[in-house]
């Protein structure tokens, strides 16, 4: 049986930095890493140094455990309580150029750079940021265990969902982005096959690359037929 993780995140990881005199501890998480389309978003949240978690954040959980409506409610509460909230993103073209993990780290760095006050230590879900010279810890399921990371996960998820619903769906209609948010659903796969990829897609991801190659092949065949005529 796998290790059980806490349903209610707490401030244990943050406290390990606080007792060292590092007051501004940023929790960092991402959203959209596995999508076929759109940027990967990251968020960083610095919570106040307190002995017990703020009551206003009692509903903060791993964002995957919350409904869209619950995440929206928690997004507002996190902004009310947090000392600082930062959001960053890496575009689909950057994901294709760098790879998804380096692009995710880039989005995280951008989120951290937008924080005021600046962080003194980091808690990250799974990924370390070796290029940032700050004390940091990273561990699996950090969004289920650390309150600041769980808060960052909610901020990242809500920010990405809002962007792809209000911007991407308008600029790139026909893919159903408002419904699947760029993830690999059957609706998305069908749209890719019928319309082909757009510049919002991640062309290094296998399902998108496959449809892109098919589209190029069809265009090549059309060009050859015109030559033959």
What would you note in describing this structure?
This protein is α/β, with parallel strands linked by helices and 229 residues long. It folds into two domains: 160 residues, Ribonuclease H-like superfamily/Ribonuclease H (Nucleotidyltransferase, domain 5, 2-Layer Sandwich); 52 residues, no CATH class. Helices cover 47% and strands 13% of the residues. It contains nine helices and five strands. A five-stranded mixed sheet has the order 3-2-1-4-5. α2 crosses α6 and α3 crosses α4. The longest helix is centred in the last third of the chain and has 25 residues. The radius of gyration is 20 Å and the shape is elongated. The termini are far apart.
Lay out the secondary structure.
Layout: H1 12-18, E1 25-31, E2 40-46, H2 68-81, E3 84-90, H3 92-98, H4 100-113, E4 121-125, E5 136-139, H5 142-145, H6 147-171, H7 177-180, H8 186-195, H9 206-228
Parallel strand pairs: 1-4, 4-5
Antiparallel strand pairs: 1-2, 2-3
Residue-averaged pLDDT, rounded?
A: 93
The shape is elongated
**Percent range of helical residues:** 40-55%
Instruction: Write down the CATH topology of the largest domain.
Output: Nucleotidyltransferase, domain 5
CATH homolog superfamily of the largest domain? Ribonuclease H-like superfamily/Ribonuclease H
Count of individual domains: 2
């Amino acid at each position: 049986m796998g290790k059980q993780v806490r349903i209610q995140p707490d401030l244990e990881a943050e406290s390990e930095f606080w007792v060292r005199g590092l007051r501004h501890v940023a929790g960092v998480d991402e959203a959209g890493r596995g999508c076929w389309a759109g940027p990967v978003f990251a968020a960083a949240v610095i919570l106040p140094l307190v002995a017990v978690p703020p009551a206003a954040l009692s509903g903060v959980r791993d964002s995957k455990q919350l409904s869209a409506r619950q995440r929206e409610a928690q997004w507002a509460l996190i902004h009310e309580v947090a000392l600082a909230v930062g959001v960053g993103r890496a575009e689909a073209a950057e994901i294709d150029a760098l790879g998804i993990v380096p692009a995710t780290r880039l989005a995280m760095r951008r989120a951290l750079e937008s924080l005021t006050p600046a962080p003194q230590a980091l808690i990250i879900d799974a990924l370390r940021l070796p290029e940032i010279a700050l004390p940091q810890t990273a561990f699996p399921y950090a969004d289920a265990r650390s309150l600041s990371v769980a808060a960052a996960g909610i901020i990242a998820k809500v920010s990405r969902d809002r962007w792809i619903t209000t911007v991407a769906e308008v600029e790139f209609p026909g893919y159903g982005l408002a419904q699947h948010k760029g993830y690999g659903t059957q609706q998305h796969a069908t749209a890719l096959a019928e319309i082909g990829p757009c510049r919002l897609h991640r062309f290094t991801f296998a399902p998108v690359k496959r449809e892109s190659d098919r589209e190029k092949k069809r265009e090549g065949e059309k060009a050859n037929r015109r030559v033959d005529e």
